[in-house]
Structures are given as C-alpha cells and as structure tokens.
Amino acid sequence: MKPYFQPKWISQILPGFISLAGVGLYILLAWGHAHGQVSVIDEGLYLYKGYLYATGEYVPFQDYGPLTNHMPLSFLIPGFFQTIFGAGIWTGRLMAIGLAICMLLGLWLASRRLVGSWWAAAAVWFITLNSMLIKIYSQAVSQVLVACLLIWVVVLTAGKNRDRWQILAGVVLSALLFLTRINMAPVLLIAIPFIYWQHGRKVGRLALVVAVIIVAVGHVIYWPGILKLWAKWIPESISPFLNSFRLPPDAIPLWDPNIDPINRYESLLLTLKIHYISFLGFLAMIAILISKKKRHLVEGDDVSAWFMVSLFGVLFIAHAVASLGLNYCVYCLRNYVAFFSPIGIILVGMFGRELGKIRSSPPIIYALIFLLIIPFFFGFSLDQRLIESILTTDITKVSSLTAQLGTTEIRVMLGNKLGVQYGQLIQLGQLFVLAILALVPTVTILVCVNKGKSFLRDESVRYHYSIIGLGALLIVEMIFTTLAFSSSYGDYDCGEDVVAANASVGTYLSEKIPRGSRIYWGVGRSPVPLLYLPDRQVFPSQLNGDYTYMLSGESQALERFGYWNSQLARSWLFEADYVLVEERVYSDIHSLGFDEKRYDEITRTPLTNPCRADSSIMIFRNLQGLE
Length: 627
Hints:
Elements lengths: L7 H29 L4 H14 L18 H13 L3 H26 L2 H13 L1 H7 L4 H16 L6 H15 L6 H15 L1 H21 L5 H7 L27 H14 L1 H16 L8 H26 L7 H5 L3 H15 L5 H18 L5 H8 L2 E6 L2 E8 H9 L3 H34 L3 H28 L11 H15 L5 E5 L14 E2 L16 H6 L5 H10 L2 E5 L16 E9 L8 E7 L5
Parallel strand pairs: 3-4, 3-5
Antiparallel strand pairs: 1-2, 5-7, 6-7
Helix pairs in contact: 1-4, 1-5, 1-6, 2-3, 4-5, 4-7, 4-16, 5-16, 7-8, 8-9, 8-10, 9-10, 9-14, 13-14, 13-16, 13-17, 14-16, 17-20, 17-21, 18-20
C-alpha cells in the first residue's frame, strides 16, 4: 500500500510541471541573452563561413578559401539553417535556442531514466540557474550544437535494454559529432567499447561498422583538403607525410600570447567554479564506482555511469591539455567544458541514487566529507568584494592588547602584524572563509551522525536521515555555487539589443555597397554584418582577423591555407572596391598601405556594438578602383 502522503500526482505529475517551468524560464532568459550579448568572432565565423559553404560559394578546406579550422558540420549546420530561414544573426541565435531546448529535453530524458523524475526536473533547473551556460548556449557557436548532440548520444546508448535502433541512432550521432568538432572524436572512441560492454558483441560490431562508414564518407567528401585539419593536430614528428598540408615552417603568427602559469591556474579555477556541479558529479561518482566491489561493475547502471564518467574525464583532460598546456586558448577552457557539462549534472543524480544503496556508515561519512571539502580543494571562494569589505573596515587601534585613540583599517593592522601585502591578505582571507565553509559542516555532520546512533537505534532509519541530510546540504551548496559563480561570466554582456544593431548595420552596408563589389574586411571582429551583403566578394583569409595574420611567410602559401600577411593586405587594398574598417582599429590600417588620398570615406555605419562608441564601421570607396 502506498503511503497516504505520496499520491500519484506528487511523484509522477509534479516533477513534469516543475521541469516545464524550468524550460519556460530558460527560454525567457535565453531570449534576453540572445538579444543582449555582443557577437563574438567565433559566432560570426560559424554563421558567415557556414552560409558561404551551404550556398556553394566555397567548399570546406578548399585552397584559397576561408580557413576551415573545424570539422565541416560545425559550419554547414548553421549555414543550411540560414539557407532555409534567412541569413542573419537572429536566425543563428534562434537556432541556438532551439538546440538548447532540444538539449534540455535530452537531459531530462536521460536523467529520468538513469536517476528518476525528480532529478530530471532538478537537472533542467540547474542548467536554467547557470547564467553562463545560458549565455553560451544562446549564441550561434558550436557549444550548444555539440552539447545537444552529445546528450542525445547518452539518451540513446546509455542504460539497459536499449533497442537496437536507438543504439545505432546514438552511434550515428556520435559519428556526426566527430564530423562537427574534431575535439569530440573521443566520444565515438569511448562509445563503441561501452556498447560492446553493455549491449553485446553483435550490436557492438554493427555499431563499429556504422561509425566507420559515416566518418569515412565524411572524409571522402572533403578529401584531401580535410587533411589540413588533421595536420594541425597530429604531431609533425609522427606524420611527416602531412607536411604538404601544413603551413610553411617560416610562417610566424601575430597571435601568440604568452600567458604565465598563474593565469593558467586561474583559468582552471574559474572553470571549476562555473561548472561546479558537473565536476562535483564527476568526482563523486568516481569515488562511488571505485569503492564498489568488483562483482557489481558489470551491472547495467554501473556501465552507464562508467561510460559518462569516462566521457567527462577524457573530454576534460583533452581540452585542458589543449587550452592550458598547448596554449590553444587559455581562457577558453570554461567555454570548452560547456560542450559536455550537462553530463556531470546527470552524474550528480546517479551519485545520490547510489548513496541510497550503501548499507554501511563509513562510506556515507567518507562521501559526505569528500563532497563538503571539494570547494576547499578547488579553491572556491566567496566574492572577493566580501573579503575586501571586511579588510577595509575601521576598528579601534590596539597596541600591546591595549586600546588606543583613533581607528585603523583591519588590512593595515594585519599587514603590520603579519608582514604581508594587501593582495596576500585577500588570499589568506579567502582561505580562511573556505576552511570555515568546508570544516564546520563536516564536523557538524560527523558529530550528528555519531550522536545520532544513541537516539536512532534503527540502522535503516539512521541511514535514511543521513541521506536526507546529505541531499539537503548538496542541494543548498549546488544552488549557491551555481548562482554565485556563473553570474561572474559577463564578458559579452551589453544590455542593448545587439541583434537589432547588427541587422541595422548590415542593412545600411547593403544600401551603400553595390552588388558585385569587392570588399576589404578590416573590422577584425565578428563578420556578422557580411551576412546581409549577398553577391559581394570578400577576401576570405581576412575573416579570422588577427588570428590568421602572419608576420612572415610566403604570401601565396599563406593564402592557400586561409592565412594572410602585410603583402596580401596591400594587394587586397589595391584590388578592393570598398574598404570596411572599424573605427577602433582605423589607425592600424595605415601600416598596411592604406593611403587616404586613394580612398574616399563616404559614410559610417551605426554601432555594431551599442555599448562601444568606437564600433561603427567606416566605409571607404576606392577612387582608382572604380574609375
């Protein structure tokens, strides 16, 4: 008989309504962020290059075309979407919102099947509460596309008793994910062995055949140009046969930031903070899995847990090595983790479910302590402003334990007593707060658990309350950290309608620049305005701006691979009918051979970024080129 206080609508219907409410709030927030965020260069490149590829003006990886620095589907999917619904930034951002909703549906389905309805609702809300993820997933960049494909791979392949068509559909998505981003290749390499493990050899062999066919076909279509991408990632020492697909060795890039280890460490901590729940689930589930006896490791749920733990761990290590170790983009690590962050949220729920199966108090106590001290080891902290406000508080001067006349700031007193600088005091203050946050709850729970043995003689009741206490603490901790840490991501916030601004600029440019014109793109930021200029020719190597500009190297070889230098810039300035230069970088173009006597500034566009007064595009007409 079911308890009278648990009617059917509470356990089955209410979680669904809570989930729908979370999705509704997500859409509202995403809609606002889609309008209010400045377009990053990556977004503009996915949209504009994708549109050029989808309309057949260029082919991915072709010589003397745009740099195809990712697998083709990352460009073609937004490109084909625009051929259907119209080119422009709003089309791209609507696509992103749609993909995010699809991702939330997959997250809900996977969480409900692997954990339960209540955690499915919680998973949706933890995405909704993470403002950074909403901002990233509201832009037409590859994060939301990859996250959507990846979560549906989990939906279709993880868990017991999957139909064969579902498993094969998941393999198809894994292969398409490979052809979307090369950094997602580990997904397919991990999925196939786990399909063998969980679903049997027959299905595993069929999955392998399907995956090989799809990946091979994708490579054959773009052969041999696609080898340019592989040549970038496979070390030259083991692939000299790819040298003809590499840049000349004398090509020296302009963009080569030198970031010290401290800043790399800060990037890692920032990533761990923003994706706290996901890393919590990853580490906690590892602790559970390795503590279980070997005879349990072949159970269906455990295989699914190992599958997702492996995905999260391998993908994080791969991206951390590329970002922090290989200098690919040090401060992009937090964005890279957004590719697979939802998997960690599922793992938190699976961890909670596994705790309920443990029937000895030491594992519960160890897991509890482990989870509570995670923030300390990750270096989490309260907002630095809190520590600063405490340190700048005036207190009565004290000398030899005797109060003196006048006041002094706490930072001055501690600095004199301890002989440390203000910055060091802030760090010490953060460590002190962290120690309190980690140790006080841990000690309190240990005391309650031990004292509770005398009051709660029934072991099952004691475990029941232990799990409830753990769950309550974790939920409070996860909500707090999600709201506190994710709100720090505001790199591209503007608050004005960026979509309308870019559409206005694009329309303005289309009115001023005739069809058939050749355009020198000297803006260096997101090429979104070019989406509104059909039937105009650009010099494709310029689209990536300074990121593909080389200080040295033979010009023809550079242009073949989608790069450029000062010599090519001078040539294009001479050939272009119109020169477009953003106001903020106007002074830089003179070093490339820009002669004001040769060009006539006819007008300037409205602001591409309403929050920057120097973001208008200056339109110059080549007087000699039009004669």
